[in-house]
Each structure stands twice: as structure tokens, then as C-alpha cells.
Amino acid sequence: MDIFYYVLIMLATILISNVVNRFIPFVSIPLIQIGLGVLVAFLPLAFELKLNPELFLVLFIAPLLFNDGKRTDRQALWNLRASILALALGLVFVTVLVIGYFVNWMIPTIPLAAAFALAAALAPTDAVAVGSLSGRIDLPKKITHLLEGEALMNDASGLVAFQFAIAAMVTGVFSIWSASVSFVIIAVGGIICGLVLTFIKFKFLKWIRGLGMEDVTLHMLIQILTPFVIYLVAEELHVSGILAVVAAGIMHAFEKRKMDPMTVKLNVVSQGTWSVIIFVLNGLVFIILGTQLPDIIQVVWQNSGVSNWQVIFYVLLITFSLITIRFLWIHLGWLIPHMLKREDTSKLNLRATVLTSLSGVRGAVTLASALSIPFVLGDGTPFPQRSLIICIASGVILCSLIIATAILPMLARKDETTTDSPRAEKALRVSVCRKVIEELNKEVTTENKLATEVVVEDYRGRMRGILKEDMDLSKQREVAKAQQELRLQILKWERENTDLLASRGETSHQTASRYKKYIDAMEKALARKTKTRSGTTSLMFKRLTRQILHPKQWQEAKARFNEMKQNPEQSQKMMEEIRELREKNVALITDRLKSMLDDSNQAVIWPLIDENKRLLDQMRRDIGSAKSRARFEKNKKEVQLQAIQIERDVLQELFEQGKISRDLVRDMRQNLNLYETYYFGSEELA
């Protein structure tokens, strides 16, 4: 029960940290969670958490990196591959060498191999910390992609360097050739292992779906187990488990699945489940870090043989050194190519270099590495200054987070998205709908044309609703009046086109005559639209009087109706001709209305375009047989699935490009889930 209570307290602490962040948003959540973790460590609990570094990596880092790999921008990762590798490999090893020698010179009681181990633990940036930071600070999109790619890749190089430094310290033996070969085997082997296991997983899923095993719970369980299994298998093969889960996540991002009801259902469940998992794991990482700090600091404060002020000085100096090395490496990496090409180096953005340098925060991997330092050497003697090394690593983590939290918002302010204003948000929502409509129109076929038009109309309806938000009453009346006038013009276009088609023999004169009667009736209805209720009652009375005074006309109309009823084939033919005529008129009207579109009249014209198409769609469905209607509903559902996926992709692209804030994209994704539920009903989401 003690463990159970402890877990409940940790989960409650995550909840409290997010509530606290609402009141002090200028402090990043990781710092709040570390502080609350320190408080948890002082609670009089029966259970005390002893962190196992290996368990920590598989339980927390594996699923977090797997999820980051799935969500990463593949194109951006490829475009920045050279810069990412320069940071993930070159900068890590430079940091190990420089900081290792520097620590050994500054603190002679820490042997060189142990100093290299500390430097290797501090070298990699942390993907979890970077993700938490980017959620609060809107960095330029290129820097964000660079940081995410670096954090995904540099863990392996840092951990391999750390392992060799510890091995050299424990055994007293080190070979640069052996270390280099081992690094290549471990890194490349990890990537290959992740790709192979993911390929096997895809084949396995295809096989069980072929057996009819479509249970969403089963597939969701497989998704959750994937990063843990891949990490453990890779570690058993003595290759990088971290790179294996990163490669697996990126491969999942490339997966193309056919959209069907089962996939949609799985996507909904998966999104909700993973959001909870990532939310909890992100919080636990920093809370656990906080719970470890009191014991670490207490040991150093009392028994390290170094004064407390010296420890603080070491932490600050090492943090400053890490930032300086990172700044010089990045600046030279951008400066040298420009100099070789003899380009103007004044165009280099120094501010971007500073942003990238300060964004290299340390986190869970650094702490896990430091805590995995053995207590004794190979000859049984205590590992020299183990507590001091762990304390310095913890202090650098805190300092990097504090510096990034305090300074980055000021430097990144100019790059924040501008979707906070209601007008900008409205424009963004409309642009998303338009993008979905454009993509759907590109995929139109003869089979799904009607279904696509219906789904497009749904999105145009959403656009109209967005555009009408906050529209004052006078503006609504102005739009209604303009639409009234334009509808009369549309009827004029229809009459002219009907006469033209009849003169060309493309429709019969009888059909044209009947259709023009419909146009006449519509014109009269529009002319009477502004009349009062008493005027409508008067009109009904006039019709009744005309039927009484002119019974011959009434009898003729009744005879025509009975004739059509007795000759269903002739009636069907007439309806088909009217439908064809209506289609041609709608095409003409749509083209003319679109040619009139500009920024000032969209609220007037788009509803009329959609209205004409909607009437045509209804006519087609009414004429079709039950079989054709069923086929239409099937096509409509497929197009709706496609539209939902397009909208998700558009939102993700906008977010990755920095054109939409995290809060707004979250709200829009929640709304999308509601639309998805509306489209497919409780039967498919149960």
C-alpha cells in the first residue's frame, strides 16, 4: 500500500504543478515540478524512492522519445540532417573532451576518467526538457526542429561516451580505437534494430487484421508496448536502445494507413491514450528529479570535502562553459561555410545562435547517467567524488532550466505566433477549412464527386459560421440584402441559359418551359420575401379565390399531375432532363459567382455557391435508387475520413511551422475530435 500511496501522491503533484503554472505562467512547468518534487521528498512517507537508472531509461525515456519520433517533422529532420549530426555527434565529443579536462583541472580530486564521465553525462541535451520548454516558448521553427532533432540523436553518443569513461575509470583501461568501433556498432545497430522490429510489427499487425482481429483495445495495447519492447530487445543485443526507439518512432511517422472506420476509431483512442501517457511521464520525470535533489545535496553539503560555496561556483562555471562551447560550435558551424563561399557574414543572425545555445537544456538523461555511476571501482575502493559529481550534474540541470526559462522568452518574443487576437484566430480557422477543401478537390473522382461536394459543403458551412461570428446585426442585414439582390440576378442567369440550351437543342422546349415556371415562382417568392405575415395570409387567400373563380386552370393542373402519376417512366424522364438542366445551370452560376469573388464579398457569395450545390446534391440523391444511395453514403464516409486526416495534417504542419500557438492547435484538435464523433456516431466510437 505504501507504493500505491506514493504513486497517487506523485500523480496528484503533476496535477498541482499544472494548476500552479496557471497562476505563475512565467515559470516553466519543469521547474515547478522539480520544486514540488523536493517538497514530496520531505513528506513523512513510509516509502522512499530509490531511482534505478536502467529502469528509469526504459520506463520514461523510451516511450517519450518514441512519441517524439512519431511526431517529428520528417522533412525538417532531413533538411537539417547535417546540422543535427554536427550537434549530436561533433558537439557531444567536443564537450566531453573540453569539459572533461576543465573539470579535472578545476577539481583535481576528480580523476580525468571520472571528469570525462561527468562531461559525457552533461553533453546531451534532453528531449523531454526541450519539449517542455518549446511548449511555453515559441522559438523560430528552424531552431525548434534543430533542437528536437539534436535531442533525439545525441543521447546515444552521450551515453556511449559515458559508458566508456566509466569503464576506463573502473578498469583503468581505455582504447580510442575500440571506443570508436563500439560507438559505430552501438549507434548503427540501434537504428537498424529499431527499423527491423518496426517492420516486423507492421507485418504482424497486417496479419492479425487479416484474421479479423479488429479490436481497438488490442491494437492500442500493442502501440503502448512497442517502445518498451524495442528498447529492451536493442539493449539485449548490446546496441543503443534509445536510437532504436527513435528510429522506430520516425518509421511510424512514415507509415501510411488506409483510412477506414477501425483506423479512425483507433486514432481517436490512440490520441487520447498517448496524450495522458505523455502528460504523466513528462511530469514524473521532473518530479522524480526533484525528489532526488535533497539526498544528493545533503551528502555533498556534509561530506564532500569541498565547501558549499565552492560547489555552487563549480556548478555555475561548468554551466557557463557548456553554453560557451555550444555557442562557439554553433556560430562557427554557421560562419565557416559562409566564409568558404565568400558570402557576407554580416547576415548571420547572432540572436538565433544565442537562442540555440541557451535552449540546450539538460534533464532526465543527465540525471540518470550520473546516478548510474558505480559506488566502487574494480579494486573495491570507493568511486572518487561520486556524490560531488552527481550534485554538479543536478545543479547544471537546474541552472540550464532556470537560464532558459528566464532569458529565452525575452529573446524569442519577436518570434511568437500572432494567433492570440480573435481576428487572427478566425482567419486561421478559415484558412484550415479552405486548405482541406483544396486538398479534397484534388482527390475528386467520378465515383466520389457527389460525396466530396457534400463534405466540402460541410466545411464551407463551418467557414460561414466562423465568418459570421461577432458580426453585428447591421452587418448581417447588409449581407442578407446583398444576397437577396444576387439571387434575383442568379435567376436571370438561369432563365437566359435555359433559353440558350433550348435553342441549341440541348434540352427540350417542354423541359425548358417547366423550368422557367420554376424560375418565375422563385422570382415571385423573392419579391415577396420582405412581406409581413398578414401579406402571406392575403396571398394564400388570393390563391384560393383564383382556384374557385378559375376552375378550368385548376382541373388542367390536376390532370397533368394525374398523367404523370399514371406514367412513371415519362415522369422519371422529365425529372432526369430537369436534373441535367439544373446541373448545367449550377455550373454556369458557380463559375460566374466565383469570378465575382474578392475579399470584400465572400460572406455574400460563398453561401450562394454552396446553396446551389446543396440543392443539386439533394436532387441527385432523391432520384437515385436505394443501392446508389447506399453507395453514396459509403463514399461520403470515406471522404469524411480523408477530410479529417487532412485537417489533422494541416494543423500539425501549421504548428510545426510556428504559425499557430500550442493552445489554439489543442483547441482545434479537440473540436476536430467532436466533428469526428458527430460524423461517425456512437456505433463506431463505442
Report on the architecture of this protein:
The structure is a single chain. The chain has 686 residues and is mostly helical. The protein has helices at 2-23, 29-41, 53-71, 74-79, 81-106, 112-122, 127-134, 141-171, 176-210, 216-236, 241-254, 261-303, 308-340, 350-358, 364-371, 386-412, 422-442, 449-468, 473-504, 509-527, 533-549, 551-566, 568-596, 602-623, 626-656, 662-685. Among the domains are: 52-415, Na+/H+ antiporter like fold, CATH 1.20.1530.20; 419-470 and 624-686, no CATH class. It contains 26 helices and no strands. Helix 3 (53-71) crosses helix 10 (216-236), helix 12 (261-303) crosses helix 16 (386-412) and helix 13 (308-340) crosses helix 16 (386-412). It is elongated. One of its GO terms (cellular component) is plasma membrane.
Brief account:
It contains 26 helices and no strands. The protein is mainly α.
Please compute the radius of gyration using only Cα atoms.
Answer: 34 Å
Number of helices: 26
CATH architecture assignment name of the domain at 52-415:
Up-down Bundle
CATH topology of the domain at 52-415: Na+/H+ antiporter like fold
CATH class of the domain at 52-415: Mainly Alpha
Helix content bin: over 70%
CA-based shape: elongated
Largest sheet: none
What's the number of extended β-strand segments?
0
Structural class: mainly alpha
Unreliable parts: 414-420, 530-537, 681-686
Percent strand equals under 5%
Overall average residue pLDDT: 76
Succession of helices and strands: HHHHHHHHHHHHHHHHHHHHHHHHHH
Distance between the termini: 34 Å
Family: Belongs to the monovalent cation:proton antiporter 1 (CPA1) transporter (TC 2.A.36) family.
Subcellular location: Cell membrane
Transmembrane segments: 6-24, 31-47, 53-70, 82-103, 109-135, 156-177, 183-204, 216-233, 239-254, 266-291, 311-336, 348-375, 387-408
Organism: Listeria weihenstephanensis
